[in-house]
Design goal:
Layout lengths: L2 E7 L6 H14 L5 E4 L13 E2 L6 H6 L7 H13 L2 H8 L6 E5 L5 H4 L3 H11 L2 E10 L6 H18 L3 E6 L6 H11 L3 H7 L10 H14 L4 E3 L5 H14 L12 H21 L1
Parallel strand pairs: 1-4, 1-5, 2-3, 2-4, 5-6, 6-7
Length: about 280
């Protein structure tokens, strides 16, 4: 049987660890098993139990303190991820070989890992060889996406990851619970956007007209091909969390091998119909 994985990506501070912790709690509430692997070598703390932690293999602080390397924070993180790519047997040993696993990989926030470096692509290919069906989950902070030009920037970041990794991807706006009611209403237009209408409404916010044609071309690409859409994620909304999970499950075909069960209402109706038929037969006889 296949195994399932979410590659939880997004800029630093977009809420990746909070997303993982929320999904673990939600899974417990619906009697479902979800494990988390921390792949951020710079993580300091998180509020979920880990199946495996890259910091047991390598840490950013150790790399930065090594006098022969002399890396800064970003260079140190890239070095750690490349070290992981060269030692994937460590990850395989920690993942084990349990069928029907569902694992969240809490990834680092450096965007270059998903745009022009091959590290995350190598990880995805290895997971697929281990019979994982992988879905990319790209998070952006909803508080950042409240202006058109910032929204376009977030869309391009999500699109870069999608093109680079070549896996199904679900894009999510996090921290919806932190928005004011007015901001929540305002941000609805960004979930399924009409790019050209947004540009016209916010034309005054663009400081320079120099790249007007380029911006329009990008918006046309996004709009015509429906390449990037976002789902809202409010960690206090169980129904919303379930919708997000259903979209991800559908993209990796989770549960397709599970035994189909009739909905309870249909079972009750069927049972009532059988009782009526038996009653009529007994009366007729």
């Amino acid at each position: 049987m296949p195994r399932y994985a979410q590659l939880v990506m997004g800029p630093a501070g977009s809420g990746k660890s909070t997303y993982c912790a929320t999904l673990v709690q939600h899974a417990e509430a619906i009697n479902r098993s979800v494990q988390v692997v921390n792949l951020d070598p710079a993580a300091e703390h998180f509020s979920y139990p880990v199946m495996a932690d890259i910091r047991e293999l390598i840490q950013v602080d150790d790399v930065m303190e090594d006098p022969s390397l002399r890396f800064g924070p970003n260079g140190g993180l890239v070095f750690c991820m490349e070290y992981l790519a060269n030692n994937l047997d460590w990850l395989e040993e920690n993942l084990g070989h349990v069928e029907d696993d569902y694992i969240l990989f809490d990834c680092p926030g450096q965007i270059e890992l998903y745009t022009h470096l091959p590290v995350m692509k190598q990880l995805v290919e290895q997971l697929q060889q281990w019979e994982f069906r992988v879905c990319g989950v790209f998070l952006v902070d909803s508080q950042f996406m409240v202006e058109t030009f910032k929204f376009i920037s977030g869309v391009m970041a999500a699109l870069s990851a999608m093109v680079s990794l070549e896996i199904p991807q679900v894009n999510i706006m996090t921290k919806m619970d932190l928005l004011s009611p007015k901001a929540k209403k305002e941000i609805e237009k960004y979930l399924d956007p009409d790019m050209f209408s947004m540009m016209e409404d916010n034309s005054a916010s663009f400081r320079s007209k120099k790249f007007d044609k380029l911006t329009k071309a990008i918006c046309e690409l996004i709009d015509d091909y429906s390449m990037v859409r976002f789902l809202p994620f409010d960690r206090s909304d169980e129904e919303g969390i379930n919708i997000v999970l259903q979209n991800i499950d559908f993209s990796i075909q989770y549960g397709e091998d599970l035994e189909f069960k009739e909905p309870k209402e249909l079972e009750e109706d069927s049972g009532n119909q059988q009782q009526d038929e038996l009653f009529q037969d007994s009366v007729g006889s």
